[in-house]
Amino acid sequence: MKYVDEFRRPDLVKNLALKLKKITTQPWTIMEVCGGQTHTIVKYGLHDLLPDSIRLIHGPGCPVCVTPIDLIDHALFIAKTPGTIICSFGDMLRVPGTGSDLIKEKALGAAVQIIYSPLEAVEIAQKNPAKQVVLFGVGFETTAPAHALAVYYAKELQIDNFSLLACHVLVPPAIEFLLQEKDSQVDGFLAAGHVCTITGYQEYGVIAQKYQRPVAVTGFEPLDILEGLLFCVEMLENKEYVVKNQYTRSAKAQGNIHAQTLLDRVFTRTDRVFRGIGLIEQSGLMLSEEFCTFDATKRFPFKGDVSYLEDRCLSGQVLKGKITPCQCPFFGKKCTPDTPLGAPMVSTEGACAAYYLYSQKR
Amino acid sequence: MLRTISILKKGDPMILSCPSPVIEDTLITLSHGSGGRWASKLIEEVFLKAFCSLQKNERHDGALIHTPEGPLVFTTDSYVVQPIFFPGGDIGSLSITGTVNDLVMCGARPAFISCGFIIEEGVLQSDLKKIVASMQRCAIENNLQIVTGDTKVIERHEGKNIFINTSGIGIPMTKQKIRPSSITPGDAIILTGDIGRHGMAVMAQREGLRFSLPLLSDCASLLPAIEALLSAGTTIHCMRDLTRGGLATALVELAQDSGMNFLIDEEKIPISDGVSASCEILGLDPLYVANEGRCIAFIPQNDVQQALDVLSTFAICTDACVMGQVIEQSQEGSVVIENGYGTRRFLFQLSSEQLPRIC
Predict the structure, then answer these.
(1) Pairing state of beta strands B108-120 and B162-172?
(2) What pTM was estimated for this model as a whole?
(3) Which of B340, B341, B355 sits opposite A90 (nearest CB)?
(4) Which ipTM was obtained for this model?
């Protein structure tokens, strides 16, 4: 398959692994930001090919994992409200809120619709004028434009029974937050190639210079990961603190201008809580004034009584790279994909799910 | 569950017993029907617990029944596929080939099949006729008779659903004991064709996803190919058709049931470009996607070449290959898969069905 097979070729992957061994002269800790990258690393056993001195830690880039429990509870509240249809991507369905998840609510009679594109939710609203249709908008900068487009169309077409529960989060503020922590161990980053395809990567250059941490914009196939690591280690060894683009087949420095224009019009930045990590300033997106009538939080006001301290899941430690999933005392015991304590164990991109699925003998 | 709390008044007799415990009941969700761990748990905790006769049988695609006239194999399966027509088949052909394949996996030739229909009001009779015609065609192709049946109509929900249950009786084609406990260290694990077609074809049709590469269900009877293997005198230790849960789930179940460790070579597993591409886009792993015309067979090394030669003469088995081996006995029984980089990982059953991802 084009764009896949050539980026999984064992001979090229092994060659890059050898090159990486040759240029690495000291220990480095590198964080892959995106959960998709974590899955590639664990699924293909790429850490087994790396020199011992390179330590990979997993970052906060799994949108499902960082969505705070009060927003999940809000979605559950909407799902339980009579006369509503809640539309969501499949991987949010099993993420536990307080005492329930969307799959259970569906079994209890809630109208929960799995969608494959956010525009489907607008169509569903068009076809069900007597219902309130809410799009559960979870994602980083990658998925935000598609959600923005759905809201934009709903406004253009005057589909007033459509609204968006905006839960979007942004990568650069999260990276800065991690770097500002006193005991940050990260020497360099593999940034998420698809996020940079939308936003460009100039903002990452500023971070690289400010915090003296190189950033490699990296794709998601085994060859991408190894080449991204090679770029990152080269920069570290040469004390070069800039951003370099490995994912040239998709990401460009200036990003996707159309998508950015749409994002700027439909959304505005807001402070957001990352599940397990805490409040990060200006790290989320909410609907702008022009589109605020489509804000589901206003149509379905909800005040949860969640205490973040009661969340037993140690996902924050995992998402900050402080512990690996296996070091969590609940991993594989109290917390499994059948009985998840937190989102990283059920999300397709969750680090705990990756470790549970691919690397644990039970 | 609500618990009633009564407050004692002066003079009331003191009852020294604990209040009844709050029991959290479990809802049946779609996850319980996916062929993953939740489904296994449901079978173990509800059905196996209640039906003692099930406990005695080895877990296989059908039950071996001993009658005074000789052994018979009996199996049953229900079909709820949505949509009822999909590229490469329909619920009618599926309901016959699925049950045929279950019997064939036990080394039996299907002889008689029953069919029970549950039809939603609002279904078109012309659709029902098409489905019944395709059942009849499959019955003729497999040289079996549909001998009894039942029809029920239920209230309209979506106005397009037909559910079919078929049960089948088969007559053993061989004296070989084809079952999980016959799996032996050293056995080659043969896969009869490329994987993931049925699941992806049905999903694409149901969700209106259009891919540039065609996706066609692999829905087909395995009877001709397996009959030929047995006629050629091939020794078969065990077989399992790959249905819900896909190749990975079948391997894990057999490893656990046989108490053997398997080693699988990931590069050998044939997957069509259409299945690979659609799985990539949706974030699904083809190893867990449903099939309806593929099986794995455990064959002693001496018979492997003969088996491959025989299988390669059948159109649905042209991609047949040895994709792994039984390594050794072990208490748990596990499946290790090695990729092209020489790194290894364990395969597990998923909790439930795979869900398409955000990005």
Answers:
(1) antiparallel
(2) 0.88
(3) B355
(4) 0.85
Best mutation target among A89, A171, A220 (most B Cβ atoms within 10 Å) is: A89
**pLDDT single digits (tens) B78-97:** 999 999 999 999 999 999 99
Which amino acid appears at position A131 of this protein?
K
Distance CA B282, CA B303 (A): 39
Q: Which of B315, B296, B289, B343 is nearest to B192 (CA)?
A: B296
Contact of A361 with chain B, judged by CB distance below 8 Å, is answered with: yes
How far is B255 from A318, CA to CA, in rounded Å? 32
Collect all residues with Cβ–Cβ distance below 8 Å to B45 and sequence separation of at least 6: none
Residues with Cβ within 8 Å of residue A50, at least 6 apart in sequence: A17, A20, A56, A229
**Residue in B170, B192, B273 with CA at minimum distance from that of residue B239:** B192
Measured CA to CA, the distance from residue A163 to residue A134 in angstroms comes to 5
Residue A62 makes CB contacts below 8 A (sequence gap 6+) with A34, A35, A38, A319, A343, A344, A347, A349, A350, A351
The torsion angles phi and psi of A118, rounded to 5 degrees, stand at: -55, -30
> What tens digit of pLDDT does each residue of A180-191 get?
988 888 999 999
CA dist A201 → A37, A229, A254 (Å): 18, 17, 7
Interchain CB distance below 8 Å, A116 and B282? yes
Task: Write the CB contacts of A339 (distance below 8 Å, at least 6 apart in sequence).
Answer: none
